[in-house]
Amino acid sequence: MATSQKTTNRWLVFSSAWVIIFLVASIAIFSVFSEPMTTLHGWSSADYNLAYSLYTLIFAIVAILAGMITDKFGVKWLMYVGGLLFGLGWFLTGSVTTIPMLYLTFSLIAGSGAGMMYNSALVTAMRWFPDKGGKISGLLLSSAAIGPFILSPVAAIIIEQYGVLNAFRILGVVFTIGIWVVGWLLDSAPANYRPKGWTPPAADQQKSPVSTIDLNWKQMLKTPLFYLLFLTLVAASTAGTMMVSSASVIAQDQVGLTATIGAVIVSISTLSNFVGRLSFGVIYDKFGSYIALLINLLMTISALLMMTIATSMAFFIICIIILGFSFGGLLVVFPPLTSQSFGAKNFGMNYAIVFLGYSGGAFVGPRIASYFKETTGSFTTAYVSAAVLTAIGIALVGLILYINRRKAQH
């Protein structure tokens, strides 16, 4: 272990994880393939989009197993196997002719590969930076916003030049090679790693202490704190994904924008998401985990309520920027908060379980938006519902702070 500590450059580990998350986050460009794939095969959009939902579910399930492997054996071979499966899933999707085949190649194969890599790469890199948990989480997850922003136009060009099926194949090869090129750099940090010259800060309920507790997943599931954090993440991510997934449609429906301008709104949302990820890394380190989370939730609820009266383009864009900013910061807060709350030793497995809250919210959120649009004719009820969910998240954080204060007094 001592040798690893001396010879491993932690910034190379960070760079490797950044590239892997950048590539795996390409799932967000799946919508770029929607129109050409449904037109080519005569599929319904609902059947095609279900592949994304199934992908998300399989991703979350596999990530739990990958987290356990990461904690016990390290992460490198997961990158090789995961990179192969992820790229193979994309490549084989270029040969599908039926919806069940799409679910097999993209949802199951590519989703399994992504589940092996995404959280495992994130956790491995963060273990090298106990001195800057929030900033590193923000920097790493900024790649998940940059990835779709860069790859969406690239995918559109490849589809136009070579056809949609060949685009899947080309990207599949690129993804596998890219992940393998950097995956070997993901060395695991020594147990209880401390950077040279850094001393862990004293425990403070508001700041982000390096936890001396090390719970395994079974012990974590016995704590009330887990369920409070889990439900907070479900509430916040349901609200966030509901809005982000429908940004273009909402822009066209509510403000009367064209489809082209609607696409620009999505780009604005993506950029503010990126800035939010970087900013909340700094906010986390400066003000502490729960203050950062409260700021995030308060921004979300404010923007949602503003959306109910957003009829001008300028005001609508302001709302979208705030929503994108806060939603981008949400997942930046939870990885270091999970490590702080339950310890670094079993961080991989524990965070994978906590992350199920986001996956659940991402699965349900877009459907709530569609439901209220279809039943009421507008998105206003969806905004109010999302705001109520966010308010529940704020109440849960308040309960956590109250419990922590009572413990500190005893």
From TrEMBL:
GO cellular component: plasma membrane
Membrane topology summary: Multi-pass membrane protein
Main localisation: membrane
GO terms of molecular function: transmembrane transporter activity
Keywords per UniProt: Membrane, Transmembrane, Transmembrane helix, Transport
Transmembrane segments: 12-32, 52-70, 77-96, 102-126, 138-159, 165-186, 225-251, 257-275, 287-307, 313-337, 349-369, 381-403
Compartments in which it is found: Cell membrane
Coiled coil: none
Domain annotation Major facilitator superfamily (MFS) profile: ranges: 12-405
Protein name per its UniProtKB record: MFS transporter
